[in-house]
Specification:
The chain is an alpha/beta fold. Among the domains are: 238-276 and 312-368 and 510-577, FAD/NAD(P)-binding domain; 372-508, FAD/NAD(P)-binding domain (3-Layer(bba) Sandwich), CATH 3.50.50; 588-651 and 659-711, FAD/NAD-linked reductase, C-terminal dimerisation domain (Enolase-like, domain 1, 2-Layer Sandwich). It is built from 27 helices and 28 strands. The strands form 7 sheets. Strands 1, 2, 5, 6, 7, 8, 20 and 21 form an 8-stranded mixed β-sheet that branches. A hairpin with a 5-residue loop joins strand 3 (299-301) and strand 4. Residues 114-124 have a biased composition (Acidic residues).
Length: 717
């Protein structure tokens, strides 16, 4: 029709001009010949001189042919459109209702929330409809009056499995998800619960009893998950809040969600067989426990003597996954030993390793990381791998504890936080179990990538005093199994024989879901790239080790420490309930080389940066043991992250005269970049982290850092 109208608009002026010209010629001919126009024959009308009738005939034929052609084309176009329209209407009418619902649910979250509330169960059943061709999906959109203009291209490409991966990255490149969040967040958390409250809920007082009964059956139920039919009955088909990962960040998010939305229903999916727990004690306090059954109880005494469990909450805190849908007051449920293998960000659903599908309203990715290994060990064969521990989980702690009691030699490869902590912990056992503990690393001293050289050398001597044999500047060339031992060949020719290897060479962020979800991974730091609100999509957040975020002071970063997991998880949980807060927190981390030496750090602490250290003589209260007695917790970030520094007052005590050569009892190390403090280590100085955080936040140049060090009161007795 549009083409016909265009043709007519072009021909109409030409036809009108021709008619006018013909009339003028007739009038002129009549005046010249003294005749009236009534007697002029139509065949003699011409735009040229008298007698040119043949030219007029050709002109009339051309105009007539154009009109006839336009009419025929218009008729065929209208007829074809009518036939196609009728065919599509018949196809739509013949579709089942459930299929229509599945296409509606693939629309933007604003529409999806309404549809999910009306039909909560059919979403997993509608998954097979993804194989249908895309053109019919566009027709369904045409029928829905509430669709946005961006919906048709998004929905028409949604059914093929590979399409989200191709389409998703451009959507994130400009980070536009913040706008949709304003519209979606108020509705998503509150709409699904009413639909789920239609079932008779259990009483509030029955929650602890049900959760306690579910504490032990959880791993058992998962162990029986080989029967997919039985497993599917235990897994809810929908979770308003879905948390992927069962670590510190995930638990912090769950508590934050429940604090802001008391009726929230939260589902945690974790690959591990245990409920969320603290990882720091696995390489610290647990090794110093006098309880022979510590590997079973997983309870330990903090440096201050108080006992606690590594688990954040007892089993009674959680409800079972089966109860989640019908829980009147909501709750937190855990699916253990389950791995998310596929994520459909457009369909708002995930697939587990047993092919179970779970839909969600809002999702947090807190998958953490996996420990790295040396390629020479991976290539050495199965026999070497069986005698190698990659330390990360509870099972790794139990395994290494057992190994340390049954072998004669353990070699730790790595001189960072984890390697140095494990070396000190195992070194304490060396005399009791006649165990040889070796630590090797490519740096010159312990913590060589973090501490300035003089302090790294001092730390190395401290580790040696714990009974550890240090092999520095060691690059592993090969590892072989020979005579029931492992032979580690170094590149400089040295040969080390040992019974077991612990590889502590760093962490690789777990971004396995990036491909199926179409989420962007940072090429420099690894991890999922998120915006200031820790969002990767409008209804997807990332927290903990797997999040690559932008620090307003220090640039884009990825942090692998407990405090960051706590704070980022908590903020992500708040934003999932509509807080829309940016992540401005400067996270801290700490490391203890036993109960007598420890340090806390914040910002960028890199030994390649210029440093200024200010030290003083330590007292009995300047130890990790004294710090936990003051704060009441061994997880020091729990007390640090809640405090803020306001106008710190420098100590009035003057710095002692004379230098304390090689005496690093306590002190402050400042890391500088362009004369601005970007990192601080508090060496045996505790409960001063808010002051350090404020110094980095201010971002000012300091002419005399000795005066700045007085803010930490290191010269007070």
């Amino acid at each position: 029709m549009l083409k016909c109208r265009t043709v007519w608009k072009k021909l109409a002026p030409l036809a009108r001009a021709s008619s006018t010209l013909c009339r003028q010629n007739v009038r002129r001919t009549a005046l010249n010949n003294g005749r009236t126009p009534a007697y002029v024959s139509a065949a003699h009308m011409s735009s040229g001189p008298a007698g040119g009738g043949r030219a007029n005939q050709m002109y009339v034929l051309l105009v007539g042919a154009a009109c006839v052609g336009g009419g025929v084309y218009t008729y065929r176009t209208v007829k074809g459109d009518g036939q196609r329209y009728q065919e599509r209407i018949e196809e739509i009418s013949s579709r089942p209702n459930k299929t229509q619902a599945s296409y509606i649910q693939t629309e933007p979250p604003a529409v999806e929330a309404t549809e999910t509330e009306a039909v909560p169960e059919p979403e997993p059943e509608a998954a097979p409809s993804s194989g249908e061709p895309s053109p019919p999906a566009a027709d369904v959109e045409a029928v829905i009056p509430t669709e946005t203009t961006e919906a048709p291209p998004e929905t028409s490409e949604a059914p093929p499995a590979a399409e989200p991966v191709v389409e998703a990255p451009p959507e994130e490149a400009a980070e536009p998800p913040a706008a949709p969040v304003v519209e979606e967040e108020p509705s998503a958390p509150c709409e699904p619960p009413p639909a789920e409250l239609t079932e008779p809920p259990a009483a509030v007082e029955s929650e602890p009893a049900a959760a306690a009964a579910a504490a032990e059956p959880q791993p058992e139920a998962v162990a029986e998950s080989g029967d997919s039919a039985a497993a599917s009955l235990k897994v809810p088909s929908h979770a308003p809040y879905l948390l992927i990962g069962g670590g510190t960040a995930s638990f912090a998010a769950a508590r934050s969600i429940r604090a802001r939305d008391p009726g929230a229903k939260v589902l945690i999916v974790t690959e591990e067989p245990d409920a969320p727990y603290m990882r720091p004690p696995l390489s610290k306090e647990l090794w110093f426990s006098d309880d022979p059954s510590v590997t079973e109880t997983l309870r330990f005494k903090q440096w201050n003597g108080k006992e606690r469990s590594i688990f954040f909450q007892p089993p009674s805190f959680y409800i079972t996954a089966e109860e989640l849908s019908s829980a009147e007051n909501g709750g937190v449920a855990i699916l253990t030993n389950r791995k998310v293998v596929h994520m459909d960000v457009r369909g708002n659903k995930i697939k587990l390793d047993d092919d179970t599908e779970i839909s969600y309203d809002k999702c947090l990715i807190a998958t953490g990381g996996v420990p790295r290994n040396l390629q020479v060990i991976e290539r050495a064969g199965e026999e070497v791998m069986q005698k190698t521990t990659l330390f990360r989980k509870i099972e790794d702690f139990k395994e290494l504890d057992k190994v340390s009691r049954n072998v004669k030699s353990i070699t730790i490869i790595g001189g960072g936080f984890l390697g140095s902590e494990l070396a000190c912990a195992l070194g304490r056992r060396s005399s009791e179990f006649d165990l040889e503990v070796i630590q090797m690393y490519p740096e010159k001293g312990n913590m060589g990538k973090v501490l300035p050289e003089y302090l790294s050398n001092w730390t190395t001597e401290k580790v040696k005093s714990e009974g550890v044999k240090i092999i520095s500047e060691a690059l592993v060339k090969s590892v072989v199994s020979k005579d029931d031992q492992l032979e580690i060949q170094l590149k400089d020719g040295r040969l080390v024989k040992t019974d077991h290897i612990v590889a502590a060479v760093g962490l690789e962020p777990n971004v396995d879901l990036a491909k199926s979800a179409g989420l962007e991974v940072d090429s420099d730091f690894g991890g999922f790239r998120v915006n200031a609100e820790l969002q990767a999509r409008s209804n997807i957040w990332v927290a903990g080790d797997a999040a690559c975020f932008y620090d307003i002071r220090l640039g884009r970063r990825r942090v692998e420490h407990h405090d960051h997991a706590v704070v980022s998880g908590r903020l992500a949980g708040e934003n999932m309930t509509g807080a829309n807060k940016p992540y401005w927190h400067q996270s801290m981390f700490w490391s203890d080389l036993g109960p007598d030496v420890g340090y806390e750090a914040i910002g960028i602490v890199d030994s390649s940066l210029p440093t200024v250290g200010v030290f003083a003589k330590a007292t009995a209260k300047d130890t990790p043991r004294a710090a936990t007695e003051l704060s009441g917790t061994g997880i020091r970030s729990e007390s640090e992250t809640e405090d803020t520094a306001t106008s710190p007052v420098a100590s009035s005590t003057p710095a002692p005269s004379g230098s304390h050569k090689d005496e690093y009892g306590k002190g402050v190390i400042f890391y500088l970049r362009d004369k601005v403090v970007v990192g601080i280590i508090l060496w045996n100085v505790f409960n001063r982290m808010p002051i350090a955080r404020k110094i980095i936040k201010d971002g000012e140049e300091h002419s005399d850092l000795n005066e700045v060090a007085k803010l930490f009161n290191i010269h007070d007795d």
